Amino acid sequence: MSMKTITICALFAGAVAILRGQSAGPVVLQIKADQVAAHVSPMLYGLMTEEINYSYDGGLYAELVRNRSFREDPKEPVHWQLVQEGGGTGSMALDPAQPFNDAIATSLKLTVSQAAGKQRVGIANDGFWGIPVRPNTRYHASFYAKADAGFTGPLTVAIASTSTSASTGSEGATVHASGQVARVTGSWKKYEVNLTTGKAAVSADNRLVISAGSPGTVWFSMVSLFPPAFNNRPNGFRKDIMQLLADMKPAFLRFPGGNYLEGNTIETRFDWKKTIGDISQRPGHMNDGWRYWSSDGMGLLEFLNWCEDLHVEPLLAVYAGYSMRQVRVTPGPDLEPYVKDALDEIEYVTGAASTTWGARRAKDGHAAPFKLQYVEVGNEDNFDRQAGSYDGRFAQFFDAIKAKYPQLQVIATMKVNGRTPDVIDEHYYRRSEDEMASHAHDYDSRPRTGPKIFVGEWATRVGEPTPNMSAALGDAAWMTGMERNSDLVIMSCYAPLFVNVNPGGMQWKTDLIGYDTLSSYGSPAYYAQKMFSLNHGDVVLPVTAQGIPTREWQPPAPGRRGGAAAAPPQPPPALPPVQQAPTLFVNATRDSKTGTIYLKVVNRAGSPQPVRVELSGLASVQAKGEAITLSAASPEETNSITEPAKIAPVTTTVDGLGATFTRAFPPYSITVLQMKGK
Ligand code: AHR
Questions:
Q1: 3-state secondary structure 67-114
Q2: Which of 70, 383, 488, 519 is the most buried (most CB within 10 A)?
Q3: pLDDT in tens, 217-267
């Protein structure tokens, strides 16, 4: 650790001046508590989401049946098994000759050849890494079916264990809950059964079984099973994950991507009109950007309902005529249908029930329009290699949106020529804590003359599947910079938000919240964000810092973000020169209504850091305050599905505060110090 010769940097925003001194003493922070360096944007801390790492199917979307409409693989009914118990026999196959409807042009055919007495033949779904069973819980099962003339029923619907019963030796012998459909007719019809567990132990090694006890043929489609969802919403969301999000008190939700918005091709984009209405009419689509099937159960209205449940604003990203395999639509008449789609989408979100798409939303179950302020045109259009492509596409969307919805703020995904976006979305994925920390002062010197900034994706990519404490320290350093410059950086959201930690669940490493079939947890970076989101005032206070320690770090060779797929072997590129990065980061804000001062201190070093705080401009500062501290014994420490809260914030009452005081901040720690002054 070194204390550097005095130089002044980062003066632009006026919020923090770092005076690097040779002082061996404590860091000195001079905080002007009666002055305003900037205002904190009320939209600063939000969430970003897309279908990646099984975020919805197998994640937030509470549906428990995987491949429910049998479209995941055109050749075979993946995730479905034939059940033959007690000597019963039969077969199961996809049957495109018996389409379910125009959207789902196949079905699953079950042929029961032999079943009598205790014999049973049926179909079983193994869910997303199993089906969670909890005691005394009511599940809602539903499916569409039709039968040939030889079969009328009944069908038994059950949630049963996949493990072999010790007593009978037969699969599925432990039935946790079951119900019956008495009669199946010869034309497609929906059947619904409630399944209630008793004293069952919590388990994931279960499956949904629909079986018959007599011969005949039955076709199935849209087989669904829901546990109780957050706010009891039908077609709703997993409770534990929603609670983790609600606890962050975010301001907005950016959806539906990300790469998921664009798809590899135009056909595999997020085509919102195919994601609304009854789930039995949604075809689903191949999420080729992240290489797995999307049921589209999480459709446009579900995203909006999700916002409503969290009390956050939607930040709607519209498809902008570019897909990731360098497929683009030429501006002009060719692009017009996509621009119209975007206008229709905005009408679906915001229009009165008297408008065409507002009426459709009302028919889909939500009469009231949603509040919408921000619309983003595309995603990461800097990857479009055709020069000027985004300029033309953006201009066409921008003009059309502004003409019909002048009140909307339009976000561009990169710098554009020809139009001035209201906001520009910038993405920062950093490969190490030092790298992220070394950028924490970037916005201090950004000119305030251009559009506002939305940091729509960012993360310190250290740790997998979820970030460790080192990543949280890098993130927290970065957040002090965004918060200090929140007059310019008006919104931010980490990405990706979710990962299913089961084998094969992760496509992108370092994700904020992890879960498996039964439980979920927040990473240290999750807690760092929660601390920032819950503890800030409305004004940034000017801070002068002296004696900020630094450490050497080796910047990586230039390359595309951390964790990208390995490139073919090449000579190692020259490394940039070694640099110094601060190990201490601070920001101070005040709530002008309550007078509470929030001092955030990030100590990345492995030893306690004494800090002398000098508050000016206040008549008095209360001696007692509160410290919320997130710390770890080493930067590598982390949370996991088995140790979900190993690293979690601890709140303590502190004494000895005042207009001047000295306090030691623990090694590897993030602290919010709450002080009351007048
Ligand atoms: O967050 C993962 C991906 O990173 C997003 O889908 C994309 O926008 C970015 O490249």
A1: CCCCCCCCCCCCCEEEEEECCCEEEEEECCCCCCCCCCCCCEEEEEEE
A2: 70
A3: 999 999 999 999 999 999 999 999 999 999 999 999 999 999 999 999 999
What are the two backbone dihedrals, phi and then psi, of residue 471, each rounded to the nearest 5 degrees?
-65, -40
- What DSSP character marks residue 397? H
Closest to 678 in 3D by CA, of 168, 181, 34: 34
> Ligand 1 centroid to 553 CA: how many Å?
27
C-beta of residue 134 within 8 angstroms of C-beta of residue 197: yes
Cα–Cα distance measured from residue 674 to residue 599, given in angstroms and rounded to the nearest whole number: 7
pTM of structure: 0.95
DSSP-assigned letters across all residues of 145-207: EEE-TT----EEEEEEESSPPTTT--TT--EEEEEEE----SS-EEEEEEEE--SPPPBS-EE
Q: What is the 8-class DSSP label of residue 14? A: S
Q: Which atom of ligand 1 is nearest to the CA of 380?
A: 8
d(CA 205, CA 225): 15
CA nearest to 31, candidates 670, 505, 588, 603:
588
Counting beta carbons within 10 angstroms of the beta carbon of residue 341, is it exposed (0 to 12), middle (13 to 18) or buried (19 or more)?
middle
pLDDT above 60 (res 359):
yes
Residue with CA nearest ligand 1 atom 4 = 258
Q: Ligand 1 centroid to 458 CA: how many Å?
A: 9
Residue 457 Cα: closest atom of ligand 1: 1
**440-468 confidence digits (pLDDT tens):** 999 999 999 999 999 999 999 999 999 99
Instruction: Please name the amino acid found at residue 263.
Output: G
d(CA 610, CA 594): 28
pLDDT at position 487, please?
98
Q: Tell me how far apart the alpha carbons of residues 18 and 12 are, in angstroms, rounded to a whole number.
A: 11
Q: How far is the CA of 429 from the centre of ligand 1 (A)?
A: 9
**Nearest-CA residue for atom 8 of ligand 1:** 258
Ligand 1 geometric centre to CA of 581 (Å): 27
Q: Tell how far the Cα of 317 is from the centroid of ligand 1, in angstroms.
A: 13
Residues with CB under 6 A from ligand 1: 50, 52, 257-259, 379-380, 457, 495-496, 508
Compute the distance between CA of residue 381 and CA of residue 324 in angstroms, rounded to an integer: 9
Taking the chain, what is the end-to-end CA distance rounded to the nearest angstrom? 37
What would the mean pLDDT of 297-324 be, rounded to a whole number?
Answer: 98
Give residue 573's pLDDT.
79
CA 67 to chain centre: 22
Q: What is the pLDDT of residue 567?
A: 56
Q: What is the mean pLDDT of residues 313-328?
A: 98
> Ligand 1 centre and the CA of 50: distance in Å?
9
Q: How far, in Å, CA of 586 to CA of 410, rounded?
A: 32
Distance 455 CA to ligand 1 centre (A): 13
Q: Which atom of ligand 1 is nearest to the CA of 48?
A: 1
Structure tokens at 555: 């910047």
Q: Whose CA is nearest to atom 5 of ligand 1?
A: 258
Mutate to test the pocket of ligand 1, among 48, 54, 259, 411 (most ligand atoms within 8 A of CB): 259
Task: Name the pairing type of β-strands 322-323 and 327-328.
Answer: antiparallel
C-alpha 383 to ligand 1 mean position (Å):
11
Smallest CA-to-CA distance from 2 within 634, 605, 610, 662 is with 605
For the record, the structure tokens of 141 come out as 């099962």
DSSP line for 48-66: E--S-SSSIIIIIB----S
